[in-house]
Design brief:
- This protein is an alpha/beta fold.
- It has 2 domains: about 5-200, Formyl transferase, N-terminal domain (Rossmann fold); about 205-300, Formyl transferase, C-terminal domain (Methionyl-tRNA Fmet Formyltransferase, Chain A, domain 2).
- The chain is built from 8 helices and 15 strands.
């Protein structure tokens, strides 16, 4: 059996790049599709296409189905992998090309269905995540699982760090995935009783609630929002502040201050804020319209010990 495959990839995020490189180096990448507007991914794919001659189609949503058929006509792939691709493959195309379309879901299924499992895994302080490669059917993230690989989540991982680690995992699992597909493995049905679906993060999901969240929860949220949202939102005096990096600290006092109160603001001790459940958090790096800075530098804008940070 020839273990090499003809593969096309539909992608929309840098997380696909290591897998694209791996498939190209092994002579198995035959076509690429990228939605218009994503300049970073398009630039990389255009360079790869020019160097290798691999067809690249810049896709438009209104022509998406026709462009998939065009790509299939050009390269006749055995398999088409989608990696963080934003548009749903039509049922008509799935029926016309059975056992062809497979999605790389950057989270564990069925527990982490939805658009951004990386954010949810970090925000919920999960101990592990991973990649689930599944058959694409007409129901999002519900197809039979071909392969699932796990990845531990360490306490210092941000959204960006975790995405990079998952991108490497996506490239490394190809050596195990492709023989499964070649051998006709149709996958294992998901256990729907374990399924949870999470929507793409909304504004309220990236805002700090000092009254409801303890220090560890807020620290996890800040990592889940770094770098794509430049941190988790809070506010002072009508001024938006984003917490990019923070550290849970031991209590520096037991005064009966409400959550959100600044307990310390100095270069020596940093910016320390009271959270719920009598916990305390040092805001190490923050972002405002004025730029990224150490937390203690907010004193230059008038914040001081006793100032109150509020929910957005």
């Amino acid at each position: 059996m020839n273990l090499k495959s003809k593969i096309a990839v539909l992608c929309n995020n840098r997380m696909a790049i290591p897998a694209l490189q791996s498939l190209h180096s092994s002579g198995q990448l035959y076509g690429i599709g990228v939605p218009e507007g994503n300049t970073d991914v398009i630039d990389f794919c255009m360079m790869l296409s020019r160097q290798s001659g691999i067809p690249l189609i810049i896709m438009k949503k209104e022509k998406f189905s026709l462009q998939i058929i065009e790509l299939i006509g050009k390269v006749n792939p055995e398999y088409i992998f989608t990696m963080t691709f934003p548009w749903k493959i039509s049922g008509e195309i799935l029926k016309k090309y059975p056992a062809t379309f497979y999605n790389f879901h950057y989270g564990l299924l069925p527990e982490m269905r939805g658009a951004d499992p990386v954010f949810q895994s970090l925000r919920s302080q999960a101990k592990e995540t991973g990649i689930t490669v599944h058959v694409i059917n007409e129901k999002i993230d519900r197809g039979a699982v071909i392969l699932k690989k796990t990845l531990p989540i360490s306490s210092n991982m941000t959204h960006g760090i975790l995405c990079t680690n998952l991108s490497w995992l996506g490239a490394n699992l190809l050596i195990e995935l492709l023989p499964l597909l070649k051998n006709g493995f149709q996958g294992t049905e998901q256990e729907n009783l374990k399924a949870k679906y999470y929507k793409k993060p909304q504004a309220e999901d990236v805002c700090i609630s000092w009254q409801k969240s303890d220090a560890q929860t807020i620290e996890a949220l800040s990592r889940a929002c770094n770098p794509w949202n430049k941190g988790a939102y809070t506010q002072w005096n009508g001024w938006n502040i984003r917490v990019v990096e923070a550290t849970v600290v031991e209590k520096i006092n037991d005064l009966p201050n409400p959550p959100g109160t600044i307990l310390s603001l100095s270069e020596e001790s940093g910016l320390i804020v009271k959270c719920s459940n009598e916990t305390q958090l040092r805001l190490d790096i923050i972002y405002t319209d004025e730029g990224f800075m150490s937390g203690h530098k907010l004193s230059a804008f008038g914040l001081k010990k006793g100032s109150q940070l509020i929910n957005l």
